[in-house]
């Protein structure tokens, strides 16, 4: 089958389209013929070796964390799906590879595709949807009437998180460029800050929750917009000791994560606010919840561009530029 292959980290060619054997299915898996795949900044970071400590992949490997397609075969133990089902998923860590014509995925990580979405729209959802759900619902426990600051509101995670926070009944502040103000307002943002000319720290105060997706400087400023007892959840680092325990990291990785996050944790403690790092996990049940919200009209996908599979390098470069509004998708079938 055709796939986008990484032969080595930080390779000059950035990966190649080539032929690999079709995957073999296990008892608890479904074989999905990929129609479309979402591209995430995480793909670029893995390709460049930035996550080798957390997620070591042995080259050659296939990139890709989002997929929408059709079930073509089921394992002997699979009960929830049948051949012909239209599904979408974010495969589990160490089992990625959606930039290919076929992929096997554990049944527990798959959900039926929202009926009203095209394959390309559905492929844009899993990683950003699960990230937002796990940050706002599972970890942040965001409640009606609370205030949340979502950074980079016009990005992939931001466009989804704003809609989810609005559904949960929160008041939402976000940052974006002036050109994207209308977009984020239409999605549900109440306070929109032009990051190019205004300092959010001087405008926001007394927030219950911050979803941090930016660098260290923005993270430390964000701690100061929280009220005492508020929480900051970062999806861009630094990873903390709790996360190291969660993934069963070896002692030296635990030590590195402790050191990397020590400054931020001290600042958070001094301000009497919480800090945690989130690296989202595959979860079919949560995707089913997200499907319900999409089918009800509470959340709509925001897709910037759809590239043909042959232009995958160009698509990844576009995502790396940071200019995308919402998600970038490749059409495979």
Automatic annotation (TrEMBL):
Keywords attached to this entry: Oxidoreductase
Domain Enoyl reductase (ER) intervals: 14-330
UniProt xrefs under SMART domains: PKS_ER
Any Pfam family: ADH_N
Keyword Ribosomal protein: no
UniProt-listed Enzyme Commission number(s): 1.-.-.-
Extent of the signal sequence: none
Source superkingdom: Bacteria
Molecular function terms from GO: oxidoreductase activity
InterPro entries: ADH-like_N, ER, GroES-like_sf, NAD(P)-bd_dom_sf, YIM1/Zinc_Alcohol_DH_Fams
Protein name, entry field: NADP-dependent oxidoreductase
Species: Mucilaginibacter angelicae
